Structures are given as structure tokens and as C-alpha cells.
Amino acid sequence: MGIRKKGLSSIVAIIAIILITIAAAGFIAGIIVPLVKNQLNEGAECLGYEDYFTFYEDFDYNCYENVSGNWMYGFSIEADSVSEEKAEKVKGFRLQFLRSGESIAVNVEDGAVVTNEMRMLDLSVENFDIPVQGEVRTYIYNSTELFDFVGISPLMESGRVCDETDKIDIRGRICTISLI
Amino acid sequence: MIRVKKRGLSPVIATTLLVSVALVLAVIIFMWARVFIPEVIEKGGQDVAMVCEDVRFLAEARDGTRELFIQNIANVPIYAIEMRILGQGEIVDVGQPVGGGTIGTGQTMNLTLPSEATFGKTVVAIPILLGETESEMVPYVCDIDYGVEVVVEV
Fold it and tell me: Tell me, what's the ipTM?
């Protein structure tokens, strides 16, 4: 009794396997690799910025005062000296104000128009200026709340907010110089 | 007697393949991980940031002649000077004074003050050292703590 073979011939099977392999390689190269590469780049975006912004303590700011029932905060912020190429990737910073049970984030972007809530120390300055290459700038923040801590994180051109690079305990730090 | 047809790879080829795959993977991982390792700038086999501690120089700034006088009094050559102006609540970078070159041990140099540095302003002269990476020479700006603070005189 003869057995009828109905499977693929070995040649057809090998050709099918090769075609599937080529198609899979094309798919991985075209979709998976760019996707993973992009995600890896995003993950590495904040590398080297761990100490980029710090609160500068040599000026007498990093303090607060009560003005007509509101709280006015002053912060001197220093940028680390990094390469020009790296500095260009930072478009600003995020200040995180914290107190028990509450947190407020304020973004400050280079060139953005100052507001009543956040401005530069110099009242005549209409647009935010972000420090670069070891520079220091002082900013004023107005709030109805009294906060305990303030943290700062770099804000990248891509919109990504990196990890906090510095944090200060502002409790009891009443300003000895006027912020107005 | 039943004949068994051997169709697998020989142990030698299998081992060679395994070793090759492992090597290729190791190279790929190494190339990828290099991105996460910061490049170290050295000077004389030492981290250039540590060398900044050994820099000593005197500085004088005059508005009349628009000159910044620098005297290197230590053993570390100063590649260039970066200037920052101290204002109320701010430190502004005004770049490097025009002219000059490397200021060697014991040498003096007159540089041209940036236009922003005018009479009465307090400026900080910060040393720039020439360091080296594995592939090239790169200037390194020292921390402001190693700078010399001067008031621009008449």
C-alpha cells in the first residue's frame, strides 16, 4: 500500500523559511530598531545633567518674605559649565514647591514672557533668561502658600523633565534683602 | 542494523558559532554602553578639574586702557581666561577677553576687556586650562571658585 506524501517539498520549505527570515529581518530593521533606538536615546537624554542646575548660595537669596499677605520667594540658580552642545539642549527648568500634602510645579523656559507669578529679579526684564555655562540668575515667585522645600529639574528641548538636580529647605529663611 | 543519519552541526562548528555570537554581542553592548560613560578630560595624567586647584594668578582691570592684566604665579599654564560680571543677584558670562594666548609659568599678559566690563563693575576672571581626552585637546573652564575677582578701575 502506497503512502501519499502531501507536505511541502524540502526545496519549497527552505525557500519559504528564507523568505520568512528576510521579511522578519526587514521588519526588525525597519520598525523595532528605530523604536528601541529612539527610546534608548530618550533614556540617555538626561545623562550628564545630574548637577546641571543648583541653588546658588553666595548671594543672599534663596529665601522668602511676606508681601501684603502673599509669599514672595527669591531663588538664585546656577548652571553647570558644560559643553555648548549640551547646554543648547536645555530650554529651561522646573521648580517644584513642596509642603505637607501639596506640591506645585512651575516651568520656566528661556525667552518666555514673565508673569505676575514668576519673574526675574530685575523688574525691567520682560522675558526669562536662563543661566548657562556657570552663570547665575535670580528669579522671584509669588504665591499665596508658604512652602517648605523647593527643588529644581532641567527642562529639555524635547519637553522631557529630568530628575531633580538640587533641593533646598526654605523653612525659616526670611530674606534679609528686599525682593521687590 | 539501523543507520542513523547525522544531520546536526559538528561540535567544533557549534562551539565556534557560540563564541562568535558571544563576541559580537559583547561588542554591541560595549558600543552601546560607551554612551553612558562620561569622557574624562585630563591634564598631565590628572583630572583637569583637580589641576584647577593649583592655578594661581593675579588680575587687574582698567577701564581707561580697556586692559585686563594677568600674571601667572603658579606652575600651571593658563590657556585662556573667561570673564563673568557680578551683578545684583546674577553672574553673567561675557566671554573671553580678546587677544593673547597661553600664559605660561611666571608670564604676564595684557588682554582686551569685553565691552560689558566697564568702570566700577566687579568681574571674575576664570582660568581656562587645555586638557586632553583620548582623541583631542579640549579647553576646560575651571569652576568660578578658582577665579580672581577684580573691580574695574579707572
Answer: 0.71
